[in-house]
Amino acid sequence: MHSTIQEVTERIIERSKATRAAYLAKIDKARGQGPHRGVLSCGNLAHGFAACNQDDKASLRSMTKANVAIISSYNDMLSAHQPYESYPQLIKQAVHQVGSVAQFAGGVPAMCDGVTQGNPGMDLSLMSRDVIAQSTAVALSHNMFDAALMLGICDKIVPGLLIGSLAFGHLPTVFVPAGPMPSGIPNKEKARVRQAYAEGKATREELLEAESKSYHSAGTCTFYGTANSNQLVVEVMGLHLPGSSFVNPGTPLRDALTRAAAVQATRLTDLGDNYMPIGHIVDAKSIVNGLVALLATGGSTNHTMHLVAVARAAGYLINWDDFSDISNAVPLLTRIYPNGSADINHFVAAGGMALLFRELLDAGLLHNDVNTICGKGLEQYTKEPVLENGELVWKDGPKTSLDTSVFSSVKAPFKPDGGLAVLNGNLGRGVIKTSALRDGKTHIKAPAVVFEDQFDLDRAFKAGELDRDCIVVVRFQGPKAIGMPELHRLTPPLGVLQDRGYQVALVTDGRMSGASGKVPAAIHVTPEAYDGGLLAKVQNGDIIELNAENGELTLLVDEDELARRENKLADINNHLQGMGREMFAGMRATLTGAEEGACSLFATQVQNV
Ligand SMILES: O=C(O)[C@H](O)[C@@H](O)[C@H](O)[C@H](O)COP(=O)(O)O
Ligand code: SF4
């Protein structure tokens, strides 16, 4: 085991002793005796299976058959989630064939960040994760279940489902993916047309044509953003069947994997002798495994918050130094857009998850003494699923990359480190993803140009006010201010400035998309400007130095001058009303800082004494 990975794991265990112990006590208490619906009254139970057919009623009454909860984030808004429409029927049939029952316990909301990007709805994006976690709890609180299946893929949905299911960590829980859409036009071509449009060199029709050829059918978008990062992390944490993350939707293999996932959940319940609840799978080692795989593949920066919140839901306290130390210890093994021109389908063709497990296990970068939904250890995850005469079987995966331009090796990586750096300085702490940066773009010192709204930056760009070396500061984008939206639509104008040869960078207390990459961006800066962060004192022309090599983010203004300055007051009312945002004031006020996961769910309620 790599010494740094071991050391980070041990310090997470040490700092989380009390919170993890409390968590385990909570889920052991919830385990109760026998099937959980056994504690319900006859009235409760009758309500719970009133709509079931006679067979299922008999099975549920018997208390000896497993009842599996289906929690689904199906909707038609996310191309990634549309395939879930047919899954409940598939799952119920599969579970029925093994003598158990599955009930659709509840739906959870899901926002497509691609639809809301650059629009008011994006202000709800991060908070929707916590709503998804709460919605998962509402569904499981019927307490009729012996296991659960989580149907979710995209950005905040998997983190929300993980947080919600960990609150019911006594239940065996299997995550059910649906897979990526087939490849469309290359993501780099899509990005080229966007930049051309930003410069007025492409028409809106040409832009829509390119976008529609990139996002063209059901399935997850093919760039390596937060959605595909979610799949990879959940599989490495042992919550998917081996190799199921990136099998395309609407294929016989995908359907076979969905049925098999449902049956696997019935095998892990407390009714048999193979009980394996999610709270015993998600432990410090599986969380560190998820971090290793995320960072070894240049995964989404959003996980510097989501995985913090997920870990907290399992009783673990992790921080950005854990991310940074692991990033420095793992090599960059893949080049998937935005960290290259390949997409997730090319990653699969080059070796996919089976090869990733193989490379990381052989290099001692993954803990192998872990629990998974398929038993102990990760060896089975070096295999990949195939249909043989209609039967789902697993075969040894590739031992070496089938396309070294997409998937390298630990011995000859694309970069010696994972390409995520933590920045520290008088402006606070932030993160920067360097895996997608061109050489020479990791250290920039330039005058600040300050914005308090991403749309103002657009106007300044179009007016030619940014055609110079500059560090654009977009502040009052943090959790407590406006809910920490993604500012991904800034990538095309900033990319144009970079291509014109200017030294340009972004500094913000907001987020970027997992699909953002080419422009150096110090993001998630905490404390946020709205909450006393020094960003609130930055003025146009101040010199800022962003240095990802030594991890510094510094406002080069002397202390006396800063002491004389007042914090700028935020003018954010236009972000607090409309599109439902007025209903989230309470949640915004309780969101923790970015490094604590920007989460509203772990405030301990002080007992009224
Ligand atoms: O974190 C992410 O991965 C993004 O939120 C992603 O889910 C989002 O949909 C992007 O906006 C898509 O990229 P484009 O906006 O470039 O299509
Ligand atoms: S990857 Fe992003 S754009 Fe694609 S479906 Fe998911 S949320 Fe929407």
TrEMBL record:
Catalyzes the dehydration of 6-phospho-D-gluconate to 2-dehydro-3-deoxy-6-phospho-D-gluconate. InterPro entries: 6-phosphgluc_deHydtase, Dihydro-acid_dehy_C, DiOHA_6PGluconate_deHydtase_CS, ILV_EDD_C, ILV_EDD_N, IlvD/EDD_N. It comes from Bowmanella denitrificans. Its EC number is 4.2.1.12. Keywords: 4Fe-4S, Carbohydrate metabolism, Gluconate utilization, Iron, Iron-sulfur, Lyase, Metal-binding. Residues 65-380 form the Dihydroxy-acid/6-phosphogluconate dehydratase N-terminal domain. Belongs to the IlvD/Edd family. Pathway: Carbohydrate metabolism; Entner-Doudoroff pathway. Binds 1 [4Fe-4S] cluster. It catalyses: 6-phospho-D-gluconate = 2-dehydro-3-deoxy-6-phospho-D-gluconate + H2O. It comes from the Bacteria. [4Fe-4S] cluster binds at C154, C221. Pfam families: ILV_EDD_C (PF24877), ILVD_EDD_N (PF00920). PROSITE patterns: ILVD_EDD_1, ILVD_EDD_2. SUPFAM superfamilies: IlvD/EDD N-terminal domain-like (SSF143975), LeuD/IlvD-like (SSF52016). Its cofactor is [4Fe-4S] cluster. This is Phosphogluconate dehydratase. Residues 406-598 form the Dihydroxy-acid/6-phosphogluconate dehydratase C-terminal domain.
